[in-house]
Amino acid sequence: MIPETSNTPDSTRRYVTYYGQSESTALTTTLVHALADAMDIDVTDSEQVLYRSINPDALDELFKPQYNGIPRSNGHLTFIVHDYVVMISADGRIEITPVYK
Q1: Does the model's pTM come out above 0.90?
Q2: Residue 41 carries which DSSP code?
Q3: Could you state, in order of their start, the residue ranges of all structural domains in the chain?
Q4: Which of 19, 32, 82, 101 is 20 to 30 A off residue 25, Cα-Cα?
């Protein structure tokens, strides 16, 4: 995962990583590890937090290659997981940004 400093004055950290549609690793597996890094928690704990927020099977289905095997090239999904905004893009980019109240 690549931590990036955002442009906000409070030095908010945005975490960025990528998943590959052609790889054997599921999107949700990559996301669970990215959340663990961003939240500074154990991978098992991040898995439980994610699964309370979104259906992992539906997420994997949404971004898997099309029926003809061609990878998806557009679209994104944004949702909140335990005080973090998660944005997943069809190009493979995953961004995780803390929500500040």
Answers
A1: no
A2: S
A3: 2-98
A4: 82
- Taking Cα atoms as reference points, which of 53, 50, 71 lies closest to residue 62? 71
* Cβ neighbours of residue 59 closer than 8 Å, sequence gap 6 or more: 27, 28, 31, 77, 88
Q: What's the pLDDT score for residue 13? A: 81
CA dihedral 59, 95, 22, 58 (to 10 degrees): 0
**pLDDT, average across residues 88-97:** 94
Closest of 70, 100, 101, 80 to residue 6, by C-alpha: 100
> By the 8 A CB rule, do 36 and 46 touch?
yes
Helices (H) and strands (E) in the chain, counts: 3, 5
CB atoms within 10 A of CB 91: 14
Length of the chain: 101
